[in-house]
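Please review the protein record below. Let me know how this chain folds according to its tokens.
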Amino acid sequence: MDSRLSLLLTLIVCCIPEGLASCRNGWVSFENNCYLFSHGKSTWGEAFATCLALHSNLAVITSADEQNFLISELKHIHRHDASHVLYWIDGTDLEVENVWKWAQTGEELTYINWADGEPNNALSGNCMNLYGAGGFKMADDDCDIHLYYICQSEYVSIGWY
């Protein structure tokens, strides 16, 4: 094989797929992640399972930039009813009360941005959501209520065929 062709193929295989990473149809990208905003409502456990079935997890928010992105998207989706909607994310204190962890990893939250007066449900509010009436900041609720949810996955690479 010609050495130039070999070099070109090496560059394509090694370098370009990273640049061709993208989100699946219906998902929205931010930094290295893709997000799916549900159209239907589920309990926190059902939402967790649905995201896993979609090869993702409930959203894990690790920075103000990421939360601001999600807030912007949610305000766009819910221009006329934002104060009436809530979205499950991955946080929970089911294991130890008031010790908030990401369910997917078991790691304690290093970034938290509670809505005013939150968390407020003591023993019955063990699952985290983004609370529309609180500007889509974090809140806790009973895991068995039905809310919208946000799934999160890493970019998928586009394969060569």
